[in-house]
Design brief:
Four Helix Bundle (Hemerythrin (Met), subunit A), globular, binds 5'-O-(N-(L-cysteinyl)-sulfamoyl)adenosine, binds zinc ion
Length: 409
């Protein structure tokens, strides 16, 4: 699949800082020291509905990770998937009497437009589950041949007991895992499984549903976790720097992915850091396609909201926080954008050299975007109140917030 166009990232004077980030697996902060090419995998959308603010907040967090790396003069190799075949997509297509693949294509196209408008850096490899099937099948065959997978009425399941490290990404107890498995696409109550938590690797073709050639597995379609493992290993290899997603992916998705990869490669963990963004809520509940309590990025754009203000609204909350989207959050972002634009539209002003370092420091500290915004706010206030004569300052501030925060003034 093609991704979306990249906005340019200006180079800043001085030196970028290495990122310290909270890692879910070790439950602590680690300092990432990627090689000259930093590698990141971020779980992409299941395209049965438009991009909502929750999605955008999660992608904003991982966009910041990349901007910090780019500022250290590293290159970034970024991979994102599109779960363009899965139960929710088929259910929505059936409900609305439309073709599942057209639905997926339309929503993916809209996602690209939203990401472009929000100035999110595009992945170098944007890969759909369907196009990944030829790479998924041999992995499932290998897991089966290694005794880590078994068949149940034609479906193939992964055996969580085959991985001694199972549980080390999410650090949850058995009961919590069982509940989350039921809630998030698993089938713990299916009779005949070796362990209720075992996730499906390959689902045998069902009547009326799309299916693909699965070689020795027979016709069918891939499970969800193996999709991301196959795409990540294909384009990034093992032990890449960050696997990212919202906190609803900690279990089972990222736990199972690490497990599949561990059995396939003998290495653990698949990613050096497991990084998770908090959930955005609306009216007191997590924004989710299944609940329908959604604010769409595209709807805000159509209503004339400047996407830069949407981005500033996302940045006003720390990525690990669970927070609530309200009209007030957006109104504050709109007002902030106006102040910032007024401040940089002056021909000169007060020095911004210290500001560059403050924004760098805030982001390097577990992506503290609210602290970065506060630092810019302080410069803006001084700039408006004081008569400075530094002609390079307004341009430097524009380049700083553009490069590090994706905010175009
Ligand atoms: N296709 C899978 C990942 S492989 C999936 O979870 N798709 S999704 O469309 O449901 O979500 C896309 C991304 O947005 C995931 O990283 C998910 O964790 C995140 N996300 C979903 N809802 C929210 C929310 N309310 N707040 C923050 N992030 C969210
Ligand atoms: Zn994923």
């Amino acid at each position: 699949m093609h991704a979306w166009p990249a906005s340019e990232v200006p180079a800043l004077p001085g030196k970028g800082r290495d990122l310290q980030i909270h890692d879910t697996a070790t439950q602590g902060t680690i300092t990432l020291a990627p090689g000259p090419v930093a590698r990141i995998y971020v779980c992409g959308i299941t395209p049965y509905d438009a991009t909502h603010i929750g999605h955008a907040a999660t992608y904003n967090a991982f966009d910041l990770v990349q901007r910090v790396w780019l500022d250290t003069k590293r290159q970034v190799l970024y991979v994102q998937n599109v779960t363009d075949i899965d139960d929710p997509l088929l259910e929505r297509a059936l409900r609305d009497n439309q073709d599942w693949s057209e639905l997926a294509e339309r929503e993916t196209a809209l996602f690209r437009e939203d990401m472009t408008a929000l100035r999110m850096l595009p992945p170098q490899h944007y890969v759909g589950a369907v196009e990944a099937i030829p790479g998924i099948v041999p992995l499932v065959e290998r897991l089966r041949d290694a005794g880590a997978a078994y068949e149940l009425d034609g479906d193939v399941y992964f055996s969580v007991e085959s991985d001694a490290n199972f549980g080390k990404v999410s650090n949850l107890d058995a009961e919590a895992m069982r509940l989350l498995s039921a809630e998030r696409g698993g089938d713990p109550d299916r009779v005949g499984k070796k362990n209720p938590l075992d996730p499906m690797l390959w689902m045998a073709a069902r009547p009326g549903e799309p299916s693909w050639d699965g070689g020795s597995l027979g016709r069918g379609r891939p499970g969800w976790h193996i999709e991301c493992v196959a795409i990540a290993l294909d384009h990034l290899g093992m032990t890449f720097d960050v696997q990212g997603g919202g906190s609803d992916l900690v279990f089972p998705h990222h736990e199972m992915g690490a497990s599949h990869a561990q059995v396939l490669t003998g290495e653990f963990p698949m990613a050096k850091a497991y990084v998770h963004a908090g959930m955005v809520a609306l009216h007191g509940e997590k924004m989710s396609k299944s609940k329908g309590n959604l604010v769409f990025v595209s709807a805000l754009r159509r209503a004339g909201v400047d996407p830069v203000a949407i981005r500033l609204a996302l940045l006003s909350h720390h990525y690990r926080e669970n927070w609530e989207w309200t009209d007030e959050v957006l109104a504050q972002a709109v007002a902030r954008l106006e102040r910032w634009r007024a401040a940089v539209s002056r021909p000169d002003g007060i020095s911004a050299d210290a500001l560059v370092e403050e924004v760098r420091e805030a982001l390097a500290n577990d992506l503290d975007a609210p602290a970065a915004l506060a630092a810019v706010d302080r410069w803006v206030e001084l700039q408006i109140a004081t008569d400075g004569d530094d002609e390079s300052a307004p341009g430097l501030v524009s380049r700083t917030v553009d490069a590090l925060l994706g905010v175009a003034l």
